[in-house]
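Q: Convert this sequence to structure tokens.
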Amino acid sequence: MKKARNTAAAAAELRRRAQARLRAAAAEGAPDPTGADARRILHELRVHQIELEMQNEELRRSRAEVETGLERYTDLYDFAPVGYLTMGCDGKIRQVNLTGARLLGVERGQMTGRHLGQFVAEPDRPAFNALLEKAFASRTQEVCEVALLKRGKEPLNVHMTAVGLQDGQECRITMADITERRQIDNTLMFLLQCGRPAPGEDFFRSLARYLAETLGMDYVCIDRLEGDGLAARTVAVYVDGRFEDNLVYALKDTPCGEVVGKTICTFPEGVRHLFPRDAALQAMMAESYAGTTLWSSRGQPIGLIAVIGRHPRADLRLAEAVLKVVAIRAAGELEREQVEAETKRLASFPILNPRPVVEVDLAGRVHFCNPVATKMFPDLCEGGSGHPFFADWEAVLRQLGEAGLEPIVREIPVGQRWYHQTIHLVEKGQRARIYGADITARRQTADELLKAYAEVEKRVVERTAELIETNKKLKLEIENRKKAEKALRNRTAELKKQRFRLVEANAALKVLLRQRENDKIEVEEKVLTNLNQLVIPYIGKIKRRSSDAKLKAYADILESNLNEIVSPFARSLSSKFLRLSPAELEVSNLVRQGKNTKEIAEIMNLAESTIDFHRDNIRQKLGIKNKKINLKTYLGSLQ
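A:
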């Protein structure tokens, strides 16, 4: 009824608006038909036409709005982050959105008419069937969690919510992927149960195996950072279902080096190509990689976890989520191990101390004795403050109270031995810790040193008297030696003067002798040169041109005698001119006198080519051939 009244009201309003539009058109000068009926009929027709046009506009606008809304709701339906299904009472799927088809692993066009139950894993089908029965029976919202089977892939955990419609023929179901949440829950449960104090596998080895099996990875390593974060030491390595020995490796040129300092670092594919220098990646043919940094409580990177696969992984979100969860616990365990190791190391100091260490409360009850203290004082714990090791304990407590945080030291006897004690207040002043040291040998040594010192003092007095007497003798001997040294210095000075005069005279003689020798050589060279240039050539000419045998004999005798005269000193002169032939000597002499080749040829009655030949030989024998040196000038310099 209400809908009918709304329709009538809308029609009346539509007619009113049509009449108003018609009056507006008449006012603009529309022709008026003749006759009252014709005008009325025409009026009705125009009003009806306008009503139809307005209805058509309203319909088009409503259709556009409906189509826009349909498109929006279709988009919301198809691209919703959860899966929507409409299922009949026969269990067959009637409608499904894109997300639902993706969750089921089948194209949406192939989903209609298929049973939803066939996608549910066998163990979860009873729960799924119970969900449908309750939804169709009660018409209320029912929920359950099941695993969906996907061909060639791991099962997918989903949260289903089902509501039956009023007609009981259909049921609407939503499906949300909770695989990651389920895995996170399983991971949290694993972390809760793993690494307990009870005997069992090491936490990091259990974690490495769990990550490999859960994430389907071939290689898992958990590392502790060393060397300012430049290297890593593995604490657990799980490869292909077995553990390998731990090792230390450099982080440079590895994906683990990229992880340090980052919350998560992933490489879905081709990781071995991105890091070609990482031999481990190349050996295992690694493709996918995910890693996370382990942070200390102070916010410093102390380790890392890396999972590596031999196949590309398009979606590493699950690995990222799991690594983020386990990283907190793993970092805590890593830091706890470091603290425990440091605690054990510090705890070993008093145990391994070669001196007694004792801790006692203010009442004198002994709470700790290291092995050395127990061996030295077997009755120390039973004796308490009455033991000689705690002699004057009340006075010690007063001194500690006055000293505040500063320790006090003392030396006490226990039996036949002496001990040095350094006493500290610990545990907010409720206990005292005593570090002892056996100083018996040191005290005995000190006593012996005192006796030895007294003896030395006595010997020093005696020796001092002897030294005084010896000193007097030494003074006298020193004075005598000084006199002798003075006389020796005077004699040495005189000898130096004489030596200097002799050196000067010797130098002068050497200069004179060298000059005399030079003069002698110069005279001999001049004699020999003049003889070879001025006499020997002309004797040769006489011998060649004279036909008188007696004259030739005299020339030979003269040449022989001249050679005999100059032979004693010719051997000591330079052999430059002796290497020249007589003809070359004559040419040399004429060149030195300024004669040219033509003039020399006329004088010697030879061809000019012969003179040029002699000139070349002269330059060669004098060592100036092919040098830019004037022969006349050079020969003049030799005089």
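Confidence is low (pLDDT under 50) at residues 569-574.
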